[in-house]
Fold:
Amino acid sequence: MAKNAILDFDLGSWVFPVSTASKEAQHLFDLGLNWCFGFNQDEGLACFKAAAALDPQCAMLHWGIAYASGPFYNMPWCDFGEIEASECTAFCRGHIDKALALSGTATALEIALIDALAQRIQKPHPVSREEFDRWDDAYADAMRKINEEFPDNLDVMAFFAEAMMTRTPWHLWDVEKGCPTPDADTIEAITVCERAITLADQLGAPQHPAILHLHIHLLEMSPEPERAMTSADRLGGLCPDAGHIHHMPGHIYVLCGEYEKARIASEHAISVDREYLAYAGPYNYYTTSRCHDLHLMMHACMMLGQFGPALAAAEEICENLTEDVIDLKDKPFIRYTMEGYFSMKVHAWVRFGKWRRIVQAHMPENPDLYCVSTSMHHYAKGVAHAALKDFDQAEEQKTRFYESLKRITPDRRFFNNPALQTLGVGEKMLLGELEYHRGNHESAFDHLREAVKRSDSLHYSEPWPWMHPPRHALGALLMEQGQHEEAETIYREDLGLTNSVVRCAQHPNNVWALHGLVECLTIRGERGEKEELAKFKTLLNSAIAKADVAVMSSCCCREQVRDLPG
Structure:
């Protein structure tokens, strides 16, 4: 059923009673809070505003307006543009001051939460980056004190965990060392979330949607993402009409090689996202979340060998991101993020070897607006022409790729990384493919080994910022040249069977590397471990059964493939 009004959405049963006599205002407050728990702050704000219109004397409704309008894990202060920061600080501070003025009739907990939020937004702009950091620290410290005063309150635990995480967003772990970053509150936040989960179970109470959501974020960069698997399994249905809540389990599923579960979670997310789009339109921050849900769908399907749904998700991203939606000059973070998503279709084409489709594809019409997408198209066209042995055109696309990089400023971000750093992986992939198909195999392998290093060194994002693992191309081409031992090592690394690759850059059980490993073990024959070969054949057969294409190699850039015995 189409959603036509703010009250038409089902956000689940979680409630946080506040000091209002209006049942309608209380319901709207609960809706707003649950939207925020699912990182849809725009809709949370709409609910809090509607609630405040019904009961303007309720302090917590003004707290909600300020809370929904301020920073959070996916949009910290550092991602606000100057205009955004100026508008946000003035607006939020105004409602915090209203909440403070109305707090005479509030409960002790409500007063404490209002006072704490006053530490997160202390004054109107201008505010320096260092001062924003101090505000984040002060808010986390204030929430720590509230958690000590109200130790068994699940909402307090959720706000406290979120406050700690937002101090160091997406820098909770040093993935190379496998330990938390020194200045992060990662372990304390995990402890708070896991205590909240245990407490809810002990009380026979529902699980808190924000706690499960944050628990996933806290562990996805860790050496043991599977520790959040139970949270992932529990979260999906808690807020039926919140797409991001349906999507979040997919972060853990893909990291643990459960790509089919990630695909199903993504389908649920995309379905409810479409309903929200029909209701709210595309001109809001949540469009980035809708694209992210489609992006994860793409990733899961690419790892499953499912071209149809992977391409469909990529095309839906592009349909969502017309120029008028992307071109938000006063919101640079949103603009850059959405344009990055627009470029992702290229990865699906290359992953499945759609060389003719790539060379015939139209370039983005506005290369200044779609600057990352333009570079990605030149990369893909260069790889495709190389695979088709059209070396003049491949060289021309290589030249245009380098020229296109000049449009991208060093501060341009692309999924938690500088865009030029991410495209550096593509540079080495392109050079490697071009050299290989010309017959310069050792030079090609050097380029592709460097692509692997560059990909591994990218900062965490889920899906991984470069969606087509360079190891898949390197392994396939090594196999074609009879370099089976190095190829086997490459495939084992990709599958997470060694300790040489950081946990979040591994791709357990993906069909492409499984095919490569089984081929290596088969070639080894009697020298190989028969039990190991049988084990991976079983995994491969299960994976191939889910694919919608014939998987004949770990990468479609390979020319000569062999049938594997059943």
